[in-house]
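Thread: PEP-utilizing enzyme, structure

OP (GT): Posting the sequence first so everyone is looking at the same thing. Length is 613 residues per the record. Can we get the structure tokens written out before standup tomorrow? I want them in the notebook alongside the other entries.
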Amino acid sequence: MADIKKSFPLPSSIAVVPGTEAAQAAYPYYTQFVPEDDERFWFYNSMHFPEPMHHFDMVTAEAAYCALGAFNTRVHVLPTTKGIDHRIINGRVYIGGVAVTDPVEIAERQILFQQRAFYYYEHWERLYDQWKVKMKVLIAEAQALPAVELPDWEPIETTHSGKGVAANHALIDIYRKQLEGYFRMWQHHFEFLLLGYGAYLTFFDFCKRAFPEISDQTVSRMVAGMEAEIFRPDEEVRRLARCAVELDVDSVFQEGMSVDEALDALDRAGNKGKAWLEELETSRNPWFNVNVGDGFYHYHRSWNDDLSMPLSALPGYIAKVRAGESIDRPVDQLIRERETLVADYRELLDSDEDRATYDQLITLAHLVFPYVEGHKFYCEHWYTNLFFNKIREFGALLAANGFFAEEADVFYLTHYELESAIIDLSLAWSSGSKPLGPKRWPAIVAERKQAIAAWAQNRVPPALGAVPDVIDDPAIVMLWGITRETLDSWLNGDDEGDSNELKGFAASSGVVEGLARVVTSAAEIGTLRQGEILVCQVTNPSWAPIFQKIAAAVSDIGGSMSHMAIVAREYGLPAVVGTGSATQRIRTGQRIRVDGGRGVVTILDAERVPEDA
């Protein structure tokens, strides 16, 4: 039973920002709050959706939660939790879990779960290899889709070959195939993910019972030192830094240099520059198919679309190579540390039965955990980049036919509206008349642009509804860092505003003092300077190249097993996650101390330090 004395605002009490009512109503009806939602608890999913959502981009939540719920509820049949409902208000995505509380239903689901999940655990390597094949086939299908175009005349081959299909049919066929592929990708994404977390959580629960004093971070360090594809893009950047030094073109890469300036300088460097550019092409395919966000926004472009991120990391890596310092991720050190921890805690167990269980659980965790990060490269990055770029092609075609001014305006339409616009254009092309879209969409796009801008300036509550007595979904605790204590701190935020300390999850050990750099979006990553402490809402593995530049990291959202926490440990970077309000409480230029072992951030300066200090 929820504590009615403590409550966040009810969903029904949240007003739509004046002037944006039409843009709010344009989101699908099943994403709008309804009166009965007041009876549930919701929290703002700022981990995955930290910025207001364009209308088309909401397909990322829709496809993801369709798949997550299906595998939780119907496929693997998790005993105590089903799927996640999502709603959107003022461009912000709120989510609410669906718990299973009936003991009879839990018992029934437990039997089904053991039959299904245990099969995956027993055949993990074979099934995961099979999964990679499926993903590569799906990617190849997306790459093979034809270009989006409507010619003035069908090629003569259409008639001479008896093809029997005109270009306007191909247009809608391409769109539907790309949309189907995107939904299928998310099904593949969740085939293994919850099982990967489940294996770790089972080991985590065992350790908490067997070793009551053990910290969350210590348990997480027992699975550190993984090899996963999501780390490969940064490894390629480091390889390119070494190549630059070996080819004697390292002086080309200067802090603040634009991509065009760097490429022009390499062209002028003759054969050595050409040799480095050939190495760059080797890295780009496929490893630069990683975007600067987490795969949920169309404007978080891939490294291949915008080389700024990888090239901006090169000066720092090159300086370390010149100085004879290692630029490798400290995998060997992490593995030695984890083996020592695993052995030391094993010796504390009293019985052979406990030791056997411990051995079984840690072995399984080591087997499955690389998937938790590795899958992201194929799903949220490589395939998602192909998906959004194909939608851009439709945007370009519609813009050329007057539906709106710019290619990117297509993302202000929902995926249903985009299909209707494609059909409108297809009908006009086939009949020889003018489409009606140019009279409809420009005003709507302008209205929604204004709404997105207004929502970006609007602060939203971190949660909605009555606070639960307990937060017993381990994924919510470990991924989002939401506990009863977190919720209490959110509720009492005004009372704690004068404190110079922020508490969060101890993500990665180490104590560092330095100047803060508050980064509120991926577009601001380039403002980071050497040795600063990154303060952000959330980060993701594709930001790894900046980890060699910063001294520590702090986030608003995230638990001990969030992506930011995992990556920080893998790079040996002190980090505190899940502070709730770091980006609001800390200002760029302030001196702060990050204690990643205790999960505490201390603001040492009362006032902001000037930018040029």
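GT: Both are above now. Quick notes for whoever picks this up: The chain has a mean pLDDT of 92. Residues 505 and 599 are 5 Å apart (CA to CA).
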